[in-house]
Amino acid sequence: MKGVLLVNLGSPDSPNPKDVKKYLGEFLMDERVIDVPKWARTLLVKGIILNTRPKASAKAYKKIWWEEGSPLIVLSERLKEKLQKEIDLPLALAMRYGSMSIKKGLQELNDKGVTEVFMIPLYPQFAMATTETILVLADQLQKEFFPKMTLESLPPFYNNLEYIKVLSESIKSHLRGKDYEHLLFSYHGIPERHIRKSDITKSHCKIDKSCCNTPSEAHAYCYKHQCVEVTRLVGEYLKLEPGTFSTSFQSRLGFDPWLRPYTDRTIERLGKEGIKNMAIATPAFVSDCLETLEEIAMEGEEIFHEAGGDNFTTIPCLNDDPQWVLLLVKWIREWETKAITLS
Fold first, then answer.
1. Residue 303 sits in which domain range?
2. pTM above 0.90?
3. Alpha carbon distance 161, 320 (integer Å)
4. What's the number of domains the chain is made of?
């Protein structure tokens, strides 16, 4: 029997510091998130970060927490519910981190008799700290606990033209009636070394202005290229004028170089340059989360106003957008009929 597993990032069980600390511990101890030797990662995470960050993160989570629970979880569950109404296959939802684990998701499908799983990482772009860590863990769990189960996964869909259409139309609908001078595409940031580690050519990714635009097989695993490509394709679809939109990266941690330009500094620069009305989209996610709802929608707006800007429009992620649901249905049906190329 065939079944589908949706996988998203995850969330603390509550915005209380204790639950946030537990969640951050699992997240930051992932070797594909903080990719340093285990002894150094343990010292950094357990010796420093978990003694200082949980309280501040808990305050941020409390700002965006809904009555139903974590926005990321609630929105992912809404997506699952709408999707389940459109397909006849067993469908489960799991998170890479937190109590809604991938193991539980696979177990749920296994208990329903599923032996062939189509796993959908809910990330448009490939990155070590998102898609890769999901695939690696799922493969380990399958071999250890579900040896009779086979796993196939949806590859990154950043340049899928149907996805670009759905994303672009969603952005257009949320900008309808809004006056804006600049549209910023802000993506989750990662350390530059992650780009080099993912470079299968070991020589292409210079992380400069040219390598993302120079054809290479490295692009299949280059997060920065895939982000830049989403911006380019959406810009083309929406017929945006050059200079009226750009790309930036948010959420850096530590002192190592991360992908640039940084979102907070870009927002500040735009405000100081006289941009009074700006909009911001976050296409590294398909579900709104702490980053989009607090870091971008709250902190970003505050930075913009302090820099002299007036109107700051935050564009929601796709969440449970009906057209996004239908596109997932299409991909699932193509998987059923083997009409889609999978990783």
1. 161-314
2. yes
3. 19
4. 2
